[in-house]
């Protein structure tokens, strides 16, 4: 039955692709909504909706021009892009992801030639000198060992199988009372969460750096689609199960981008929600409607077509076109509208220059619920790259805020879920 369903879905995909090409062609030619009529508008809306929820391979869209020898080591000449001209520490993944280099500071930038020269701090795998194309990433380390950290490879039981995770202890002697669970973003991997591990360890937290459905490591969802947080939170709940079964009494969730949306859903829906002591969310999706409207505008998709795409995701009939097993409740994930319902202390870190997930909803959530939410804006960083631009400030903010949240509570009867203690965690 599943095979027949996939075959029907594949056939629909092929038909949709043809219609979509004509629709997009008409839109580009017409330049206005008049260029999209009837079936063309519907096809573009379907295409837009499917792009949001369908996992896709990374594209090597960064041109690598040359690797040269500098005074202090190797340097790489790159085509200037919005990512490559921002200072900080990043990664280049090349050769289909089998090659990985950590890229450091900008040595020189030529706007006239549209090139930038940067230091190469480390080549972890592959031959960067032979690379011509790569993709840019904020995940700077390939594994915990590259950071000098010992890690246990553990498997977490999730729907459909086992999800690999790294368990990094604060101290080898005994499990910590509070664990950090790192939840990466859409299209990323667990490498994204490694940046938070040092500050978590400094505060005495064990760290569980997880994978979840559709990320290439964990089992795929049956429909092969993102739930934008509405389904993925169950994998985070499974990670909390694992932590509590292995010595944790409370949890701090760290989430990036869609990982922020997943963390918010976990804090709202999980049976362990009272065990979640705090959340640290970096460039989180607070309001999917806002994000989708932003991307429709960026891609010059007419407003009404973008709204139609949103309706397809939320309406039961839309799943025949989107491939979703069940509609996505975008209203339930609108934390701007639900601000007063958030009762988990939350730190929001978000760049005002984020052009992928706008920072406005993060600022709005903090304004509407100042008792629970702290908003710390960054400047100059692109999406989820706040740590890359200023790691010292990122770690200082997280360390200071979490120390306050993890301080022993004045009222010994406060907090702590039944059966898991009162949660007077470490303060570092």
Summarize this structure as a short list of keywords or feature phrases.
8-stranded mixed beta sheet; Elongation Factor Tu (Ef-tu), domain 3; 6-stranded antiparallel barrel; single chain; globular; 11 helices; 428 residues; Rossmann fold; 14 strands
Structural class: alpha/beta
How many H/I helices? 11
Cα Rg: 22 Å
CATH H level, superfamily name of the domain at 144-287 and 334-406? Alpha/Beta hydrolase fold, catalytic domain
Strand residue content: 15-25%
At the first level of CATH, what is the class of the domain at 144-287 and 334-406?
Alpha Beta
CATH topology grouping of the domain at 144-287 and 334-406: Rossmann fold
Question: Looking at the structure, what is the overall shape?
Answer: globular
Query: Into which percent range does the helicity of residues fall?
Result: 25-40%
Across the major sheet, the strand order is 7-8-10-9-11-12-13-14
Low-confidence stretches: 1-37, 412-428
Number of DSSP E strands: 14
Biggest β-sheet: count, sense, barrel?
Answer: 8 strands, mixed
* Integer average pLDDT: 88
């Amino acid at each position: 039955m599943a095979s027949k369903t996939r075959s029907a879905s594949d056939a629909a995909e092929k038909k949709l692709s043809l219609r979509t090409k004509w629709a997009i062609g008409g839109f580009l030619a017409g330049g206005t909504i008049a260029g999209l009529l009837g079936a063309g508008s519907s096809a573009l809306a379907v295409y837009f909706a499917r792009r949001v929820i369908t996992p896709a391979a990374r594209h090597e869209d960064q041109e690598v021009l040359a690797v040269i020898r500098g005074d202090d080591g190797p340097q790489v000449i790159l085509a200037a892009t919005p990512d490559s001209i921002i200072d900080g520490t990043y990664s280049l993944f090349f050769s289909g992801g089998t090659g990985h280099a950590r890229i450091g500071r900008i040595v020189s930038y030529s706007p006239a030639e549209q090139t930038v020269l940067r230091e190469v701090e480390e080549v972890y795998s592959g031959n960067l000198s032979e690379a011509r194309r790569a993709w840019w990433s904020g995940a700077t380390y390939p594994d915990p060992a590259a950071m000098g950290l010992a890690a246990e490879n553990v498997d977490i039981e999730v729907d459909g199988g086992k999800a690999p995770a790294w368990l990094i202890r604060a101290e080898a002697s005994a499990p910590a009372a509070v664990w950090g669970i790192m939840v990466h973003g859409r299209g990323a991997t667990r490498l994204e969460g490694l940046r938070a591990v040092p500050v978590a360890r400094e505060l005495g937290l064990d760290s569980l750096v997880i994978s979840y459905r559709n990320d290439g490591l964990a089992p795929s969802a049956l429909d092969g689609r993102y739930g934008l947080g509405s389904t993925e939170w169950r994998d985070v709940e499974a990670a909390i199960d694992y932590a509590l079964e292995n010595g944790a009494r409370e949890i701090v969730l760290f989430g990036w981008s869609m990982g922020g949306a997943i963390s918010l859903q976990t804090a709202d829906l999980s049976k362990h929600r009272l065990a979640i002591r705090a959340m640290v969310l970096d460039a989180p999706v607070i309001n999917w409607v806002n994000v989708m409207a932003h991307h429709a505008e960026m891609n010059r998709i007419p407003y009404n077509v973008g709204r139609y795409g949103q309706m397809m995701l939320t309406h039961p009939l839309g799943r025949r076109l989107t491939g979703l097993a069940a509609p996505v409740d975008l209203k339930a994930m609108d934390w701007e509208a639900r601000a007063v319902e958030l009762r988990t202390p939350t730190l929001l870190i978000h760049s005002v220059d984020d052009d992928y997930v706008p920072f406005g909803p993060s600022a709005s959530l903090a304004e509407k619920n100042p008792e629970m939410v702290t908003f710390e804006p960054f400047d100059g960083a692109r999406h989820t790259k706040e740590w890359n631009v200023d790691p010292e400030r990122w770690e200082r903010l997280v360390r200071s805020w979490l120390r306050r949240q993890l301080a022993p509570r004045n009222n010994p009867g406060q907090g702590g879920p039944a059966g898991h203690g009162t949660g007077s965690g470490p303060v570092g």
